[in-house]
Amino acid sequence: VYLLKKPPNREALNLYRDIIRTSRSFYYRDLKTGKRWCDILQQSARKEFEDARYETDPEIIARLLVVGRQCLMNTQ
Questions:
Q1: Cα 74 to Cα 16, 18, 56, distances in angstroms
Q2: Which residues lie across from 36 on neighbouring strands?
Q3: CB 75 within 8 A of CB 21
Q4: How far is CA 44 from CA 4, 20, 27, 38, 72, in A?
Q5: What is the pTM assigned to this prediction?
Q6: What is the CB neighbour count within 10 angstroms for residue 45?
Q7: Which of 8, 23, 46, 66 maximizes the CB count within 10 A of its CB?
Q8: What is the pLDDT of residues 34-49, one digit of tens each?
Q9: What is the DSSP secondary-structure string of 25-48?
Q10: What is the distance between the alpha carbons of residues 15 and 12, in angstroms, rounded to a whole number?
């Protein structure tokens, strides 16, 4: 069982901020749409967080945070 060091909402906010900071390093553009990858990644992250906003099951919340942090670390 994954034990959160901080309350889930604080952990989620920290993860979201880290994702936004990391996405800023993707300055090049998508060849198909012409949009900057920075913007695409930020929109995708926002959608993922909004979709999980009202989740109340602590186990699912912990899983989402762990997977999100792992994906961020792999991207970095």
A1: 15, 13, 27
A2: 29
A3: no
A4: 24, 10, 16, 10, 13
A5: 0.82
A6: 19
A7: 23
A8: 999 999 999 999 999 9
A9: T--SBPTTT--BHHHHHHHHHHHH
A10: 5
Residue whose tokens read 């989740």? 55
pLDDT for the residue 24: 93
**Which amino acid is present at 56?**
T
What number is the average pLDDT over the span 15-25? 95
Here the tokens at position 51 are 């979709």
Do residues 55 and 61 lie in contact, with contact meaning Cβ atoms separated by under 8 Å?
yes
Which tokens go with 16?
């979201």
Distances in whole angstroms, Cα of residue 63 to Cα of each of 55, 56, 67: 11, 12, 6
Amino acid sitting at position 74? N
**Quick one: tokens of 48?**
């993922």
Residue count of the chain, please give it: 76
Structural tokens at position 27: 């300055």
| Amino acid identity for residue 63 in this structure | R
